[in-house]
Design goal:
The chain has 8 helices and no strands. With 191 residues, the protein is an all-alpha fold. It has 2 domains: 101 residues, Rna Polymerase Sigma Factor, Chain: A (Orthogonal Bundle), CATH 1.10.1740; 69 residues, Arc Repressor Mutant, subunit A, CATH 1.10.10. The radius of gyration is 20 Å and the shape is flat.
Length: 191
């Protein structure tokens, strides 16, 4: 763009759907790192064999952009939300695939366990479940702002564009308030 402002995803989508390969490459470059960060750690260890998170992100991007002409743009966040769902679907497919073919291995009882204990794993799952539940309690703009900042590493300027805030400072304030709200919602109930 002439003034140095990055093109919105909405504009790039329109150009890419019209056959502009440069716009499609810009979209790939913009969303691949964000999706990798978001998907990192979401594929359970037991489901990692030949496929890793980067492979699943790549498959989701290829699948989406293969039929990109039919993609219906519903706003600035539409593609990002669609891609996140596509990656989550690939992760679920991979988990189901691995679960349908369990592998049995004889273990030597004298070998010490490596990695986290079952208790540590459970506590991590509980924290993640509280995070997901608290995230669902936020309104749409807050939720997208938090996801964009924490999980996708977006700048406040990008968040302002995506949430239609007037400035990067307005986006920063919204995200900070949403994070405070998220933290309050994540506090486990008293026993």
């Amino acid at each position: 763009m002439p003034d140095g402002t990055p093109e919105s995803s909405f504009e790039l989508i329109g150009r890419a759907q019209s056959g502009d390969d440069d716009a499609l490459n810009l979209l790939l470059a913009r969303y691949r790192p964000r999706l990798r960060r978001w998907a990192s750690g979401r594929l359970p260890r037991y489901a990692r064999d030949l496929a890793d998170t980067d492979d699943l992100v790549q498959e989701a991007l290829v699948g989406t952009f293969r039929n990109f002409a039919q993609f219906e743009t519903r706003g600035e966040w539409a593609l990002q939300a669609y891609l996140r769902q596509a990656v989550m679907n690939r992760i679920r497919d991979e988990v189901r695939r691995v679960a349908s073919r369990p592998q049995r291995t004889e273990l030597d009882e004298d070998i010490a366990a490596k990695g986290e204990s079952p208790l540590q794993a459970a506590l991590g799952k509980e924290s993640f479940a509280r995070y997901e539940a608290a995230l669902a309690c936020l309104d749409d703009a807050e939720r997208e702002g938090v996801i964009a900042r924490l999980e996708l590493g977006c700048s406040y300027q990008e968040i302002a564009l995506l949430t239609e805030k007037s400035s990067a400072d307005a986006a920063r304030m919204m995200v900070n308030r949403a994070l405070e709200k998220l933290a309050r919602l994540m506090v486990p109930p008293s026993t």
